[in-house]
Write a structure and sequence with these properties.
The complex is a heterodimer. By secondary structure, chain A is of the alpha/beta class. Chain A contains 12 helices and 12 strands. In chain A, helix 4 packs across helix 5, helix 4 (114-125) runs parallel beside helix 7 (162-175) and helix 7 runs parallel beside helix 8 (192-208). The longest helix of chain A is centred in the middle third of the chain and has 17 residues, at 192-208. By secondary structure, chain B is an alpha/beta fold. In chain B, the strands form 2 sheets. An 8-stranded mixed sheet of chain B has the order 6-7-8-3-9-10-12-11, with helices on both faces. Chain B has a 4-stranded antiparallel sheet with strand order 2-1-4-5, with helices on one face. Chain B is globular and about 70 Å long. The chains are: A alpha/beta, B alpha/beta. The interface between A and B is large, with 45 and 43 residues.
C-alpha cells in the first residue's frame, strides 16, 4: 500500500464526464469517474450493459469526441489528454496508449493483410525501417501465440478463427510497445478455453512490458482471476472501488452484492437465483438521489433525495452508498 | 422421470462444402464439415439436460436437428418411440408443436414488424390451439406466465429490452403447450442479473408445467445450476455424459477437466490454478484421427492417435469417451 501510494500513477483519471446529445435529450453516459492505474497494474471495470464502462475507455482516448462532450481530466505524463488536440492525440493513440476492441470479427480491416495492419501502427508510431517493422510484426504474432507467424503475415482476417483474430488485435495494439492498454471486453466473444489463454497473455505482457491495463468486462469471474483493482460502475458512476480481493470477498455496495449473488456459484443447483429487482434507470431521466435506490434492498429516506459520494471505506476501498452492507459477502468464503 | 421422451440415436450430420478452385487444381473432392459424428442421447421426462462445449463443436446443430431444422445424414431422432424424420411423421405438425425451440439472439428471433400479440397469436392459430374467441384470454394468461405486463401485447419487439424479448420467445414457445423445450443459448446475450431472472422463470415454469428441457449453453456455471444431467460435446461427439453434480465436481474426461477449469472462478485465490488447454478446436473440416482430442490432451498415448474411444460407463460416474479415464481419475 505504502509503496504504491508513493509511486506516481501511470494514468490518473479524475472527474471524467461524458454527455451525448444536448438539452432535454442529453444522456450523461459517464458521470464523475475517477481512478488511477499504476505501472504493471490491471484495473477491472465491471457493470451491466449501458453502465458506461466502454464509454469511459473511449473518453480517455478521445474516441467519443465526435459524438459527445467530455469534461474532467485524464492525466497522462503530466498532460490532460481529454483536452489534447486531435492531431496530437493521434500520436498517443496506438502508440503510448493502445486499445483492444470487443469484436475481433469486425474491428480488423477485412481487405488488408494482417501483416499490413500491424505494420500501419509501427509506421505511424515508430521510426523503424521496413525490415525492422517486419521483424517486429513477426515477433508480435509470435508473442501472442500464433503458430508459423512469418507465413501468416500475408493472410487476411477471414483466414483466422475468432480467438486468433483477437490475438491479432492484441498484436496490433502491443506492436508499438504501449505503456497503457485499454481492453474493452477482449474475451466476451470467445470460448472459455480461449478466454483463459488470452487473459493469461494480457497478464504476462503487462508484467513483461510493465504496462498498465484497464480491462472492461461484465464477468466477475474474469475480474477475480486477472485484475488487481476493480471499479464497479452503475448508471455511469463508480459505486464501489478497491482491490479485487477486498471487493469480491466483502462487497459493501448493495449493487455489487446483488451482482455477486446473481452469479450461479456456490448456490444449490436448481434453486431460484438471486436477481436484482427492477431494471437500470434510463440515463435520460436519472433520479435526483442515488441511481440505484429504486432497486436497492437497503434503501432509506436519504437515498431518494441526495446522492452518495464515493467515500473511503477502510483500506483502499471506496463505496458510494449511505447504508454500506456489512458482512454480507457474496464471494466464496 | 425415467421413460425417455426423446431418443437421439447415433445422429450424424455433415454439411457439404463447396469444391474450391484449389480443390479442383489439387484434384481433391469437396470437403465436408462434419458437424455431428454419432451423437446418442436420451432425454428423460421432466429433466433438464445441459449440453456444453466450445463454439463449433456441434451443440447448436444438435439442437437444430432435434427440431427438424436440419435433417441428419445418419441416425434417428425418436419422439415417444417414433422416428420424427420418417415420411409420415414429417408431414405431421404435432411434433413441431410438442417440441419447441428458443433461440440465442433475442434481437433477430422475433419478427420486428409484428406486435407481441401478433407473434403469439400466430403460433396459436397455426397449431389451432384455441378458437378466435378464446384468443385474448390465452394471450393474457401467457403474459402472466412469463411475467410481462398486459400492455406488452400491443408493443413491437424493439420496444423491449433483451431480457423481455427472451420472455416473449419463451411465451411463444409455451403458447402451443409443448412437452420439450430446446433452449439454444437462451440467456447468453443477457447481463448476469437479467440472466438470473430468465433462469428462475425457466426453472419455475418447468416445475409448474412438467417440461423437459435441453439446455444448450457455453456458460458452465449456468449449466451446472439448471441441469440434472450434462453432456460435454467435442467436435460433434459426446466425450462425457453424466449426472450434473458428479460431472462438475469430478470431471473424468481430460477435455471436461480443462473446460471446467478454464471457467473463471469468483474466488481471487484461485488465480493461477488452471489446467491450461493448448491450442484451439481443430477444424471440423479435418478432424484428427483416433481420439479427436488427442492433439490437445495432456494424457495422450500412442493408442489415442489411432483408435477412437467409445463412450463407456465408468463405475461411480457417468459415461466417458477416453481410453485412459480410469488412470486419469487419480492423476
Amino acid at each position: 500500500m505504502t509503496l504504491k501510494s508513493i509511486q506516481t500513477p501511470l494514468l490518473e483519471v479524475s472527474g471524467l464526464c461524458t454527455t451525448f446529445g444536448a438539452g432535454n435529450a442529453s444522456i450523461p453516459a459517464v458521470r464523475d469517474v475517477s481512478f488511477t492505474v499504476n505501472k504493471g497494474e490491471v484495473l477491472g471495470l465491471v457493470g451491466e450493459s449501458g453502465s458506461g464502462k466502454s464509454v469511459t475507455l473511449r473518453s480517455i482516448l478521445g474516441l467519443s469526441r465526435r459524438y459527445g462532450t467530455t469534461t474532467g481530466s485524464a492525466i497522462w505524463r503530466g498532460e490532460n489528454i481529454v483536452e489534447t488536440p486531435e492531431a496530437q492525440m493521434r500520436k498517443i493513440r496506438g502508440g503510448e496508449i493502445a486499445m483492444i476492441f470487443q469484436e475481433p470479427m469486425t474491428s480488423l480491416n477485412p481487405l488488408l493483410t494482417v501483416g499490413l495492419q500491424i505494420d500501419e501502427t509501427l509506421k505511424a508510431h515508430t521510426d523503424m525501417s521496413a525490415s525492422e517493422r517486419k521483424k517486429r510484426a513477426i515477433e508480435m504474432l509470435d508473442v501472442v501465440g500464433i503458430p508459423a507467424a512469418a507465413s501468416r503475415l500475408g493472410e487476411y482476417p477471414h483466414q483466422f478463427s475468432g480467438g486468433m483474430r483477437q490475438r491479432v488485435m492484441i498484436a496490433i495494439a502491443l506492436a508499438a510497445r504501449p505503456k497503457m492498454l485499454l481492453a474493452d471486453e477482449p474475451t466476451t466473444a470467445l470460448d472459455v478455453t480461449i478466454q483463459a489463454q488470452i487473459l493469461d497473455l494480457i497478464l504476462s505482457l503487462a508484467q513483461d512490458f510493465d504496462m498498465g491495463v484497464i480491462l472492461v468486462t461484465h464477468d466477475l469471474g474474469v475480474v477475480a482471476q486477472t485484475c488487481d483493482q476493480v471499479a464497479v460502475m452503475y448508471a455511469g458512476r463508480i459505486v464501489e472501488q478497491g482491490t479485487v480481493r477486498s471487493v469480491l470477498r466483502a462487497p459493501q455496495h448493495p449493487y455489487t452484492v446483488g451482482l455477486m449473488r446473481s452469479v450461479p456459484e456456490n448456490v444449490p443447483p436448481r434453486t431460484p437465483l438471486y436477481s436484482i429487482p427492477g431494471t437500470p434507470p434510463s440515463l435520460l431521466s436519472l433520479p435526483s438521489g442515488c441511481a440505484f435506490a429504486a432497486r436497492c434492498t437497503h434503501k432509506t429516506e436519504i437515498c431518494e433525495t441526495s446522492r452518495p459520494d464515493l467515500a473511503g471505506a477502510g483500506t483502499g476501498r471506496s463505496v458510494a452508498c449511505f447504508n454500506q452492507v456489512k458482512n454480507e459477502g457474496g464471494a466464496a468464503a | 422421470m425415467n421413460d425417455p421422451v426423446l431418443e437421439i440415436r447415433d445422429v450424424s450430420l455433415s454439411f457439404r462444402g463447396k469444391r474450391t478452385v484449389l480443390d479442383v487444381i489439387g484434384n481433391r473432392p469437396a470437403r465436408n464439415v462434419n458437424a455431428l459424428n454419432g451423437v446418442s442421447l436420451d432425454l428423460k421426462r421432466g429433466e433438464t439436460l445441459g449440453v456444453v462445449g466450445e463454439s463449433g463443436c456441434g451443440k447448436s446443430t444438435l439442437a437444430r436437428c432435434i427440431v427438424r431444422l436440419h435433417e441428419p445424414g445418419g441416425g434417428q431422432v425418436l419422439f415417444h418411440g417414433k422416428d420424427v424424420f420418417s415420411s409420415d411423421e414429417r408431414t405431421d405438425r404435432t411434433y413441431n408443436r410438442r417440441v419447441q425451440m428458443m433461440f440465442q439472439d433475442p434481437y433477430s428471433s422475433l419478427n420486428p414488424r409484428m406486435t407481441t400479440g401478433q407473434i403469439l397469436s400466430e403460433a396459436l392459430r397455426v397449431h389451432e390451439m384455441c378458437s378466435e374467441d378464446e384468443l385474448p384470454g390465452r394471450l393474457a394468461s401467457l403474459m402472466d406466465l412469463v411475467q410481462l405486463p398486459k400492455d406488452a401485447l400491443e408493443k413491437y419487439p424493439h420496444q423491449f429490452s433483451g431480457g423481455q424479448r427472451q420472455r416473449i420467445a419463451i411465451a411463444r414457445a409455451l403458447a402451443v403447450e409443448p412437452e420439450v423445450l430446446i433452449a439454444d443459448e437462451l440467456v447468453s446475450a443477457l447481463d448476469v442479473s437479467v440472466q438470473a431472472q430468465i433462469v428462475n422463470l425457466l426453472l419455475d415454469l418447468q416445475e409448474r408445467l412438467g417440461l423437459t428441457i435441453l439446455f444448450v449453453a457455453h456458460d458452465l456455471r449456468l449449466v451446472r445450476h439448471v441441469s440434472n444431467r450434462v453432456a460435454v460435446i467435442y467436435l460433434g461427439r459426446i466425450v462425457e455424459l453424466g449426472d450434473s453434480e458428479t460431472l462438475f465436481a469430478k470431471p473424468s474426461h481430460p477435455y471436461s477437466q480443462a473446460l471446467l477449469s478454464a471457467a473463471p472462478s469468483l474466488d481471487p485465490d484461485d488465480k493461477g490454478k488452471k489446467i491450461h488447454l493448448e491450442g484451439e478446436l481443430p477444424s471440423p473440416l479435418d478432424i484428427p484421427p483416433g481420439c479427436p482430442f488427442h492433439v490437445r490432451c495432456r494424457h495422450k498415448t500412442p493408442k489415442c492417435t489411432t483408435e477412437l474411444p467409445r463412450l463407456r460407463p465408468i463405475p461411480g460416474r457417468g459415461a466417458v469417451a477416453c481410453h485412459h479415464a480410469e488412470e486419469i481419475e487419480n492423476a
